[in-house]
Amino acid sequence: MKVLVGVKRVLDYNVKPRVKADGSGVDLANVKMSMNPFDEIAVEEAIRLKDKGVTEIVVVSIGEQKSQETLRTALAMGADRAILVVSEEKVEPLGVAKLLKAIVDEEKPDLVILGKQAIDDDNNQTGQMLAGLLGVGQATFASKVELADGNVTVTREVDGGSETESLKLPAIVTTDLRLNEPRYASLPNIMKAKSKPLAQKTAADYGVDISPRITTLKVVEPAKRSAGIKVADVDELVTKLKAMGVAK
Ligand code: AMP
């Protein structure tokens, strides 16, 4: 059984984003980039499914040449093979979904695992669009994934509880934060990953048009929080809260 996992190179989640002076986007020059955290969870889940009948994990990234590093990290975690679709320009979720569809048509995986969202643009669109383009089932926000008898059973995080669904394979699953805790790649596995296959492609190889359809008009930093005040004791705090109408 084959699993395909999408991994995106994004601004590291510990880095405080800075907006470019001209307001055209987030400044990515000289900042730490890492694998999208939800995609680390997706890779981890695919690896854990190796005990449950998964025989091959193919990781795919669409992005600049440097995304090779992200793919090597996934290979060091335990994926078997990687495909990089090189685009030095940003590819919108629809373009990513179309490229993933072309790769799925070629690779014919039984299961595709993506993150629920990439933390750079917070789109939360790619998995849903891919399922639509392929005409297969999707289960988003997975907190538990089980494979059995040609089906995948997914527990999903929903408002105030969880929902369990069974989908016929092939299917698309997107990961939520509580699905698992991704492993760190060990040094020997990082070394081994260097010799695992990594194919390089372009959108033209798949005949997919990735020209942008969305224009970003303006990006602004969040408003600065105004400074707080210090109170001497609890009595003063309660008096102030009453004055504000927050406490009675
Ligand atoms: P998004 O819809 O952009 O929030 O992304 C959702 C998920 O789709 C991510 O967590 C990835 O698994 C996958 N994905 C999005 N963009 C890319 C990309 N450029 N390369 C590989 N996977 C991607």
From TrEMBL:
GO terms for molecular function: electron transfer activity. Signal peptide: none annotated. Residues 23-210 form the Electron transfer flavoprotein alpha/beta-subunit N-terminal domain. CDD domains: ETF_beta. Keywords: Electron transport, Transport. SMART domains: ETF (SM00893). One of its GO terms (biological process) is carboxylic acid catabolic process. It holds the Pfam family ETF. It comes from the Bacteria. InterPro entries: ETF_a/b_N (IPR014730), ETF_b (IPR012255), ETF_beta_N (IPR033948), Rossmann-like_a/b/a_fold (IPR014729). Gene3D superfamilies: HUPs. Its cofactor is AMP. Heterodimer of an alpha and a beta subunit. The electron transfer flavoprotein serves as a specific electron acceptor for other dehydrogenases. It transfers the electrons to the main respiratory chain via ETF-ubiquinone oxidoreductase (ETF dehydrogenase). Belongs to the ETF beta-subunit/FixA family. This is Electron transfer flavoprotein subunit beta. It comes from Sphingomonas aliaeris.
